[in-house]
């Protein structure tokens, strides 16, 4: 009997490229740079906030 089904939403069921690109555009940084930073920071922190804050300071 199956008791639970777990889906990994990020990049499996939903392509997040558009959302990352929108954040990069809003912060005024290259899309690939934001995506690389986000990919490096998120696993360690579990959140996008550190990457956004880092670019937020640089973009100001």
From TrEMBL:
<dbReference type="InterPro" id="IPR036412">
    <property type="entry name" value="HAD-like_sf"/>
</dbReference>
<protein>
    <recommendedName>
        <fullName>Hydrolase of the HAD superfamily</fullName>
    </recommendedName>
</protein>
